[in-house]
Predict the 3D structure of the following.
Amino acid sequence: MIHPQAAVDPRAELADDVTVGPFAVIGADVRIDSGTTVGPHAVIEGPTRIGKNNRIYQFVSLGTAPQDKKYKGERTELIIGDRNLIREYCTFNRGTVQDLGHTKIGDDNWIMAYVHLAHDCVVGNHTTFSNGATLAGHVTIEDYATLGGFSLIHQFVRVGAYAFTGMGSAVSRDVPPYVMASGNLAEPHGLNTEGLRRNSFDAAQISRLRRAYKTLYRSGLRLDEALDALRSEVEHPEIDRLLHFLESSKRSIIR
């Protein structure tokens, strides 16, 4: 399954059914699990762990050293889960010892061309990254979030579950779950209702989230007052997720 013109370091560990295209380069300390396909001219450096049934397209660069001046060659990792689609010219860096020590991507993510994930980023499951989306270091993208084309996410920012950023957005503060954001700098533009419907949120859940959005953004309440108002509905899991995100925000939220 390895093309004779591919260069695979003998210290790499590849499952028997991994496919590697011509001129791909796979370095030492790379582990790739079963069913994964690596396209031609892809470069994967270690330490990197890649799970099952991923499709990695041509000209991708994975597991290279972090673009951080503090990095001095320490052992850090890139970790990629299962069933991810990683399109052309994506670049994912390893972590740094000053933070997590790894960059981590979960399962079932759809990552389009020219996406960059910097060091110590954490990406959840079932996310969508449109072409050119770029994460600075230490960014967290939660499950089912969607980044529009050429979205730029500042260091240490979090994008919540089921959130959506419009094309060309420059995001310098946290985007709460379920919220649509766009602009430079990004501002809230309503609830991601279409994304919620596609992910089986029912009418009652969406109605509760609409009320929560109005409390947070249209009531005229200060953020601490809005949080107090939302705490009365924590018996609903979707509101509890939103409240937990808001309470744990370190950069504050777009508002």
Notes: The chain has two domains: 7-141, 197-248. The radius of gyration is 20 Å. The mean pLDDT is 97. The longest strand covers residues 186-191.
